[in-house]
Amino acid sequence: MSFSADSTIKTTELNEVVVRVFEQKKSSFSSPDAIAILNAQDLTRTNNTSFVTSLNMQAGVRMEERSPGSYRMAIRGSALRAPFGVRNVKVYWNQMPLTDAGNNTYLALIDPDFFNELTIIKGPSGGIYGAGTGGVMLFNTPNATQKKIIHQQVGNSLGGYKQSWDLQTNGHRVYASYWNQEGYRKQSDINKQWISYEYHKELLRNTQLDVITYLGRVTYQTPGGLTLKQFQTDPRQARPAAGAFLSAADQKATFRLQTLGVGVQLTSRWNENWSATSNRSAQLNLIENPTIRNYEIRKELNFSSRNVIHFKNDDLSVDGGLEFQTGVFDSQTFGNKKGTKDTLQFTQNTTLQNASLFLQGEYKLNDAWNLTLAGSYNQFWTAFIGNEGIFSPRIALLHHITPRQNLVVKVVHGYSPPSLGEIRPSTGIINRTLRAEKGWNKEVSWRGKSKFLQWNLSVYQFDLNETIVIRRAADGSEYFDNVGRTRQQGIELSHVWKLGQNLELTNAETIQNFRFVNYQIAGKNFSGNRLTGTSPFQHASTLSYAFSQWIRWHIQYTYTDKIYLNDANTDQLPAVHLWNSKVEYQRGKWNVWLSAENIGDTMYTSGPDLNAVGGRYYNTSAGRNFSLGLRISFN
Predict the structure, then answer these.
(1) For position 60, what pLDDT does the model report?
(2) CA-to-CA distance for 26 and 403, rounded, in angstroms?
(3) How far apart are CA 265 and CA 304, in angstroms?
(4) Could you tell me the domains of the chain?
(5) What is the residue-wise DSSP string for 449-488?
(6) Cβ-contact 496, 454 below 8 angstroms
(7) Using CA atoms, how far apart are residues 149 and 599, in angstroms rounded to an integer?
(8) Residue of 315, 409, 418, 423 lying closest to 363 (CA atoms)
(9) Statement: the pTM of the whole predicted model exceeds 0.90
(10) Fewest 10 Å CB contacts: which of 128, 150, 151, 206?
(11) Maximum C-alpha span of the chain
């Protein structure tokens, strides 16, 4: 929803938040698309080191953690294609892509307290943000117009420690952080460092310059999946040796990433009707990844550009532009001899390019009706599978039932080419026949707001063709295949209640009936089965209460129904109930808090390995743990 508990908890009514989305300023109430808006307080409600808790409070959104640092994002079930990492979800920072040309985002690099805002677009965007069927995440950082020094320290009962410094003055911002966390399981520690510099300056009266540079390093151990028996016997163990494979600890299974990035954006306002935005960015990723099976070294160099021209008057707004990305991806795979490179097995190098040419217009038909028409031509090219292009339209009609209620009907086409990790999976065999998945999303939304209540209800059906799913080879390595069609039907409801001057309740419900429509493989027919890795029902609630002007209490509850672990639907994760809480004291420059996660000490798996060979689905999540934090702000 587009408002914050912290910004409204001491007021008598709910306030609306406006953000820049689809190249226009919109709120979740006025947008023709399904969006969720999180401010800085929402992003760190009970956890200052991970996005998992805050994102899982949103309807239609699920973030999974296989182990600290190893994340998956599922917006309306889009994690089906990701054994690890964030794929099929486009991520931007201040309108510049963090997602590389290979359709992968290293979300483990960034911290929740680094940003002041996140907007989540659910479902396909019609190519306005490039190709993709999962959704879009738009991160924003402050312009640093005021002088601030913010220092933060966080300690965790599992043995973790985080420290950050945030210096802002006259458009300059330097942010540096360090985080080290001992894992709940063996072989699951994480260590992360990050430093970034931003510059925001109005060069001329109508021209804005924005610069971002960053250097990051993250190393996290990967303990591997357990069988059900292993999970029940000793949930904190790493994957033990089996057959010809040594254990995850013996092989020192680890993911190491070093990244360097720079981006420049110019925003020019030509007159009262016309303006333009243009940005360029580059990113270099150096990766070492010893696993149970092998030892991979990758070098990934990416370049991105985005150019948009805007026109706006009282009744019409038009945005047209081009986004282009290219990447050079070099990979060498060696044998792994207890964490040391062994004999070179194979080398795979390639170049990827993708481009989206888009145009959208929004016209105010009258005081009661708004029409949005948009379209994009998207093209993807790699030496492995050649060139593929497609046109994706987007049509939406918004009706103001009353000044406080809207009804939206939308039809949008989605297109998502295979990512590099799917074309070149861990089996080492190039898949030259993998095709892009594409389909139509039909959606109806009803939104309303009053002094004490805001709600957002969306009902949709997404019919996807050539759906890409994960398969497993006999040694546990993954590969990907197109499986025909899936039908994804869902209901999402977000509602916030102002229960008093000091009390606010936020709820989110998600119902998903996601099924394979036409899926036959190796003589087996999975048609009609539920989509792997999805849950039929999710619920999340946050209750925020202000004891006084300085003391606040937040308690969160999430319920996740059973999750189907394989395409045959024979194995399931049981339903999970989780409770988190945070008490904070904020007065002047001081902010001190104590938070507790998994209060009931539930043994569960947040991020299972789907279609795992031998039933090694289970990645144990942390039990009950506590964090103590201190934040000091100097103005």
Answers:
(1) 94
(2) 16
(3) 12
(4) 5-337+356-634 (2.40.170.20)
(5) E-SSEEEEEEEEEEEEES-EEEEE-TTS-EEEEE-SEEEE
(6) yes
(7) 33
(8) 315
(9) yes
(10) 206
(11) 70
